[in-house]
Amino acid sequence: MPNELGADRGYSLSFSTVDGDVLGAVVPGDVALERWRRARDEAEENGRWPLLLGPAVIAESVLHQAQDPDRRSPAAILAEADRLDVRTLFARWAEDTVDPDDEDDDVVGEWPDEPPGEDAAEADGLLGGVSDDEVLIILMPTPSGWQAPAWLNWGGWNACPRPEEHVAVLKHWHATHGAELVSMTTDQAMFRVARPPATRAGALAIAEDHFAYCPDIVLQGVGTISNLAAMLIDGPTWTFWWD
């Protein structure tokens, strides 16, 4: 059973992981974001970061990775993340994605007259694009949301970065833009962003990093880095997904 803190906050589920227990609760989808916000405000005091995992059928798959007895410990993943340089990561990923000698591969594009479209409504988007009646929210044994990929052992499939790479990037974006992880499902991560880019130049620089980190949001999504940058200006949420 959860500890006293979890019980006091209505967290009736407990999941054992390599380095500690993750507390959880199933809540109505229409109150999940507010529940997350309240838990986030308490994270520094109680040392547990909240995360929305979507409906139970999705959450079970995410938690299965965290409970793998053969996985690396969160401490080992965090230590590896500390040795990584995010600019080197972005450069390597960009080089692997775009062929600079291919003149037809104009992934930057022209700045659009209008942004290509708004993100999904906050409630749907931050729940990983789902609108189920019930959503699993968890409390992880860390006060820092950027550490979540280490605790969940999240990533490392197909083109999705490895857990330690996610940690390094998320820590960087938290420091530079106040990006806070809200939702993580089987293949999607979403953030609340306190300091989004406010200028075209700033947005283009961030969009290039977003594209390197997650090419699908451009190649299978908005089409060009410029389109993505136009959406990022003053945008309060960031979304990433990997096939």
Instruction: Determine the mean pLDDT.
Output: 86
State the end-to-end distance: 35 Å
State the major sheet: 4 strands, antiparallel
What's the domain count? Answer: 1
Which strand-content bin applies to the residues?
Answer: 15-25%
Low-confidence stretches: 1-5, 119-124
- Overall spatial form: globular
Order of strands side by side in the largest beta sheet?
A: 1-2-4-3
Number of beta strands = 7
Number of helices: 11
What tags apply to this protein structure?
three-stranded antiparallel beta sheet; 243 residues
Brief summary of the model shown:
The chain is 43% helix and 18% strand. It has 243 residues and is of the alpha+beta class. The strands form two sheets. Strands 1-2-4-3 form a four-stranded antiparallel beta sheet, with helices on both faces.
Structure description:
The protein is an alpha+beta fold. It has one domain. Helix content is 43%, strand content 18%. The chain has eleven helices and seven strands. The chain has helices spanning 4-8, 32-46, 56-66, 74-82, 86-97, 122-125, 148-152, 163-177, 200-213, 216-222, 225-232, and strands at residues 13-17, 20-28, 49-54, 134-140, 179-184, 188-193, 237-241. It has a four-stranded antiparallel sheet with strand order 1-2-4-3, with helices on both faces. It has a three-stranded antiparallel sheet with strand order 5-6-7. β1 (13-17) and β2 (20-28) form a beta hairpin. The longest helix has 15 residues, at 32-46. The radius of gyration is 18 Å and the shape is globular. It starts with a helix and ends with a strand.
